[in-house]
Specification:
Blueprint lengths: L1 E6 L12 H12 L3 E6 L7 H11 L3 E5 L5 H14 L4 E5 L1 H4 L2 H7 L5 E3 L6 H7 L13 E5 L2 E4 L22 H7 L3 E3 L2 E2 L10 H5 L4 E2 L2 H13 L4 E4 L8 H13 L5 E6 L6 H9 L2 E9 L3 H6 L6 H14 L2 E8 L6 H14 L2 E6 L7 H4 L7 E2 L14 E2 L5 H28 L4 H21 L2 H5 L1 E3 L6 H17 L3 H14 L2 E6 L2 E6 L16
Parallel strand pairs: 1-2, 1-3, 3-4, 4-5, 8-11, 11-12, 12-13, 13-14, 14-15
Antiparallel strand pairs: 5-6, 6-7, 9-10, 16-17, 18-20, 19-20
Helix pairs in contact: 2-3, 9-10, 10-11, 16-17, 19-20
Length: 538
């Protein structure tokens, strides 16, 4: 059986890292005996014509996609496109959004045949065995689908208790070289589940309130595999990495035992911090921790059922600074009952911490307490246009604040940062920036250029050149490539040249001859593809 899994487009500002959930799903299909292909439109351009060509070449029996609320509309429309151009395939979606928005999804998107509700890895092998027998879908728990004009739910599936039984995520199916070029950290989990009942959180409903843990040995086995692909940095993406401090310490000790050296970050809560664990984390390579502080008003934290205090926030930040870990705090605007005064409390508290911090605007996702019980709160949800649920625009208001008031507060905060950034960029262009400022601005422009190169398929569409009449061999071919890419992206020629040279040296980009032409292309995976580029390749 052939299975195509779609990695749906994700905006650059949301740091599109190699998708973790999709690679877990892909691994489950592989373990069930399927031939699996990931159609990755995170780091390449999506068009219906491109999708049709890829499906025609692969001829899948099943096409699936995952999404979060932010990119759900785009993901759903791509699945609909897949159904139109390859109607013989069973089409599906999974992930947190559709798990809690089953009815609307199936009613609005007739091209989606079935939804995988909740954790899907245990559902997959059962579903594969009955893929073409729709009458048997009733007996597979964790599904939802249409039948005779009604929506059928087969009942919830229990959470997977033995996480070590899951195969490692199938990252070998990703276009790894593209992700290496883009440069975001790779996510990994050491556990699933969170015991805290925060009313704005979707994750607890998705993965359960009782944490389940992976063996530290298995976790570090996966870390070694990630490092073998060439990724230099990892993010521990557990809902709560420190839900069990001894387990976290065991992971750190295993990293140290194997003498692995890499940078990593984690999410934590301010009430789970202790010096011993954080010192060990720092020794094992952790250099940054992000805390979901949410508000600087204690009554607001109680209303959110956050279960933390402002004093715990101060203590957690102090411990990070003491052991050499960079702390980051995330705050939210537009919370239930929010007023200008509670927002000002958050701002004063954040400033008092003297750390990097930022704001998200509340987005009441499907499956959250705050959405399902909104009548209990001083909050009005203004729209269910999921494309607006990016936490950068307000989709709510309170009795004291309009959506515009909430956005204005966040804008005023960000304007100070943006003004400083514009001054830094100006110094960069004038040649008066400090070395640190230069690297920051240069890195930003380099990332923008790389994203254009990937998201617009520029190598695929404009990376072919005549071999004749170009003196200088491979160096001249590289120069011609850099000149064309600089023109197409509007990026600084020197930056483009230096970036492409590095990608070629590292083997992310290679060239082959096609008759009397040279064709530049992205390699797939340095573990599987050729070695580093050499002039002999052309």
């Amino acid at each position: 059986m052939r299975v195509a899994i779609i990695a749906s487009p994700y905006p650059l500002e949301e740091a599109p890292a190699p998708p973790l959930g999709i690679t877990y799903v892909a691994a489950a299909f592989e373990a069930a005996g399927c031939e699996v292909k990931i159609l990755d439109y995170i780091v390449s351009r999506y068009t219906p014509e491109k999708l049709a060509a890829e499906l025609e070449a692969f001829k899948p029996d099943f096409v699936g996609a995952g999404s979060v609320t932010l990119n759900f509309p785009r993901a759903a429309s791509i699945v609909e496109d897949a159904k139109k151009c390859w109607p013989s395939a069973v089409t599906a979606m999974g992930g947190p959004h559709v798990s809690f928005d089953v009815e609307d999804t199936l009613r609005k998107y007739p091209g989606i045949d079935v939804i995988f509700v909740g954790e899907s890895e245990a559902t997959i092998p059962e579903f594969v065995s009955v893929l073409r027998d729709r009458s048997a879908w009733h007996h597979v728990r964790g599904l939802a689908f249409r039948e005779n004009g009604r929506i059928v739910r087969t009942g919830p599936r229990e959470h997977i208790q033995d996480l070590d039984s899951l195969p490692l995520p199938a990252r070998h199916l990703l276009p790894v070289s593209r992700y290496l070029a883009l440069g975001f950290p790779v996510s990994i989990i050491t556990s699933r589940g969170c015991p805290y009942p925060c009313i704005f959180c979707q994750g607890r409903r998705m993965v359960g309130s009782k944490p389940r843990y992976r063996s530290p040995v298995k976790v570090v086995d996966e870390i070694e595999e990630i490092l073998s692909y060439g990724f230099p940095r990892i993010n521990f993406a557990d809902d709560l990495f420190l839900s069990n401090q001894e387990h976290a310490r065991s992971v750190c000790r295993e990293i140290l035992r194997r003498k692995l050296q890499f940078g990593w970050s984690a999410f934590s809560r301010v009430n789970t911090v202790d010096r011993e664990t954080f010192r060990l984390m720092r020794e094992a390579g952790c250099d940054a921790v992000s805390f979901g502080m949410e508000s600087g008003n204690q009554e607001m934290l109680k209303r959110l059922r956050k279960g933390i205090t402002l004093e715990q926030g101060r203590r957690a930040v102090a411990i990070c600074k003491e052991v050499g870990i960079l702390p980051h705090a995330s705050f939210m605007a537009g919370l239930p009952g929010e007023t200008l005064e509670t927002l000002q409390d958050s701002q004063r508290f954040a400033e008092s911490l003297d750390i990097i911090y930022g704001y998200h605007i509340l987005a009441p996702f499907p499956g959250t307490t705050i959405r399902e019980e909104v009548d209990k709160y001083d909050l009005e949800i203004l729209t269910s246009d999921w494309s607006l649920y990016d936490a950068n625009r307000s989709v709510v208001r309170t009795s004291h604040l309009s959506a515009q008031d909430i956005e204005r507060f966040v804008y005023d905060f960000e304007k100070t940062w943006m003004d400083a950034w514009k001054e830094m960029v100006d110094r960069y262009h004038k040649g008066t920036s400090s070395p640190e400022e230069y690297l920051r601005v240069y890195g930003h422009y380099r990332m923008e250029f790389t994203h254009k190169l990937l998201a617009q398929d520029l190598l695929e569409e404009h990376g072919r050149f005549p071999l004749n009449g170009i003196p200088g061999g491979a160096a001249a071919d590289e120069k011609a490539l850099a000149e064309r890419m600089a023109e197409l992206t509007g990026s600084e020629p020197k930056l483009v040249s230096e970036t492409l040279r590095e990608y070629i040296e590292k083997g992310f980009i290679k060239a082959r001859t096609e008759g009397r032409h040279i064709r530049w292309f992205w390699t797939h995976n340095l573990k599987q593809d050729f070695g580093p580029f050499s002039p002999a390749a052309v």
